[in-house]
Amino acid sequence: MARSFAEETVELSNTVGTGAYTIEGPKGNYFPFSASFATGEKPVYVVRNRLNTKSEYNRGGALTIGPPDTLARGVWKSTNGNAAVSWTSDDLPLTIYIPASGEVLEAVVTGWLNAARHALVRAGAFFWTYSDVAVSWRHKLAIGDASQVDVGTFEVTPAAQYFPDARRPYTAIGATNNTVATTDIARRFSFDTAAGARTMTLPTIAAAGVGFHVDVLGLSPANGVTITPDAANAIDYGAAGATLTIPGRIPFSVWSDGTQWRTSYAMPVVPNYIRGLSLSTAGSSATFAIAAGLCADKNNTDMIRLLSSLSKTTAAWAVGTGNGGLDTGAIANSTWYHVHLIKRIDTGVVDALISLSATAPTMPTGYTLSRRLGSTKTNGAAQWTSFQQLGDRFYMAATADFTAGGTSVATLRTLTIPTGVVVRPLLTTYTVGGGNAASAIQVAPAGNATLLYYIGGTYEGQAGGDAVYTAVEGPPTNTSGQIYVAVPAYYAGAILNSHGWIDRRGQDD
Fold this sequence. Notes:
- The protein is mostly beta strands.
- Helices cover 4% and strands 39% of the residues.
- The chain has a 9-stranded mixed beta sheet with strand order 24-23-20-19-28-29-36-31-34, with no helix packed on it. The chain has an 8-stranded antiparallel beta sheet with strand order 5-6-2-1-8-3-4-7, with no helix packed on it. A 5-stranded mixed beta sheet has the order 9-11-13-16-17, with no helix packed on it.
- The longest helix is centred in the N-terminal third of the chain and has 8 residues, at 102-109.
- The radius of gyration is 36 Å and the shape is elongated.
């Protein structure tokens, strides 16, 4: 691995003629080439004679560590008309050293600082080869052979994030879509997203190569920029061909790690935010699905984006759609479970988990972020009960949770709604009145029995009876799925049914 100060490498040589240099040890307290470079590396080096009247600048000649150590020539510039100097005994000993400007010379001799210089140098970047950074970026600053392919700017490891140079201006695409070419490496594009979302189509990973990257900005927050990969390529561990939309006014980078497209952007955390991510199941099935969407994690430290619909089963959790989702134990009959969206910070992978706990699911190894999306219940065969979700509302078949046999004071009654969380039940009442008598039902929040209010009642002033049905949003429950219910008047019938619930899913926390 090259040292931080290249000028510390200085050796002597008694080579004559125009052949490879045999280097014979460091000069004074300087370092030998073998301490700074490995066999096969090709440093930029300078050779000067004893009187400092002749010189050679070499680049592309490989070091071979012996003994003896040798340096092949690759003369770029010299006092002999830029050809190899034929050294004589009068020139000895020769001094061979790495100049302090070695990295700049490396760029010069590859043509990167002339009119046709490389795109990364035009962008103000340093550069490494993919193999150079496979272990550590400290390996060297020079790219090596002119034929080697650079991977991008300031890449710490092959899968690390790029740091763009702010001096590069954006190319205005306007209110239209854009197809990125392989020659667009390191370019910046802006889109007019005021009137609609814009699409940016990427080249194939194979054509773009490792490290290809572009920067993008949607100018209006009204709409985003949709990234469209080739059908065989994925974005951020998503499905092959799946698109990704980044909201407007959020600058982002898209880059290739050689196997998939990756994105880097600083999405602001919107506290308690949730959009999409609806739950669904056909019922009498071990499988449920989660729609694509975006939410803040429960602690509002990061945003979690599900790029495409994900399905999970009642089996033990395993990453990926169609696999199990249960955090621990075995699925139980007639039991409420809570669905959590989960995310790994290290890889960005997003998945889902089902748990008996609404607040503390048993997280798989590596997953640290979560957000509860809703609740679902198993039937007597440990399969999911059918329901339908629309936003914060969950609808299910009505269940008669309380049937009165007479009047009663406010009493906690258990409803067929999720436990472990506070929700608002969706209720229907059936009351019968007749013969100058009435039936009525009152409810109150589980936390305060004195807040009773009427949600249904029937009075009939003639002989016979009338029945009335009402549908209302009930008061907040406790975590046992209960509210206070009272029957202040009773004639012949008073029934309370639950047919769903309203779950804010952490939006009010």
